[in-house]
Amino acid sequence: MCGLRYFLYLILIALFGATAPAANALNAHSIKHHGKARSYYTAYPAHQLTKNMPVVIVLHGGGGNGQNAAAMTGFDKLAVQEGFIAVFPDGNARGRMNLRTWNAKHCCAYAMKSQADDVGFLTAVIDDVVKRFDANADAVFMTGLSNGGMMTHHYAAARPDKLKAAAPVISGLFGDEVMPHKAVPMLIINSVLDKSIPVDGGHTGGRAKNQWDGTPLKPISYQGAFWAANNGCEVSGPNTTKYQLYQVDKFDCPINADVMHYITYDGGHSWPGGQKGTKRADGPSEAFNASSLIWSFFSTYIE
Questions:
Q1: Among residues of the chain, what percentage have pLDDT more than 70?
Q2: CA dist 282 to 120, 170, 179, Å?
Q3: Which fold would CATH assign to domain 2-299?
Q4: Is the distance from CB of 64 to CB of 152 less than 8 angstroms?
Q5: What is the pTM of this model?
Q6: Shortest CA distance to 102 belongs to which of 163, 114, 156?
Q7: H/E element holding 109?
Q8: How far apart (Å, rounded) are the C-alpha atoms in residues 5 and 230?
Q9: What average pLDDT is seen over the chain?
Q10: DSSP code of 246?
Q11: Of 16, 175, 224, 265, which residue is most buried, by most CB within 10 angstroms?
């Protein structure tokens, strides 16, 4: 059994970019959800902490945790520099391997199989952060990578009232999502070299697909089309601008309902401009720094 758990651990790392060097010192917090203690971490400019600060929720990939989400993305440092509260929740896990995942309906692993209420948990985290720090409830944003990106999509569709904008990274949709019919500005990031989230959709390669429920992914372009339709954008499709290492598909959308899709030509299943998850993981794209790009996008929605 220990051998099987270790094998599953390796699968999750290979698929979802689970681990990374430890983040800088973070503030640890705990809340009760459904009678169970759940944890999250925060980073913010302690010497300049004020009321009404914006909040960015950052969700780790499958097999990861809040601390290495901070290390991989650098959102902890960015929060201190730019003056917002970065929040890094821990997903669900069982056993000594501590493989944390999110229940994004069709993925992944323990969280999916146990039907964990991660929408409820993340709502509780948002409410706790807003109360604890007297933060701006009208400036809460969410991003995440891989399984965390799937959860970002899932949460935005389930609770659009809680988010000002969202940015799923190296993730996808499955085609049976229900539109919330409330605009959620979206910045989406993928890579043409990502074998875990194939450009044309379908199943991920190898035995890692056993961490899902068997539902194939839609092509990565479906993400932009889904949110563009939800946000009331023009049905003609996006305008594409190509650069050396990436392209941007931008939809013609109403004010405060932007949808744009950045697709890198390098990298793979990794956080652009971030830290490599493991020695065997895909190297991060050099096209841009995803965290800086995402924060720039989010900051335009702060009133």
A1: 89
A2: 32, 12, 32
A3: Rossmann fold (3.40.50)
A4: no
A5: 0.91
A6: 114
A7: helix 109-113
A8: 40
A9: 90
A10: E
A11: 16
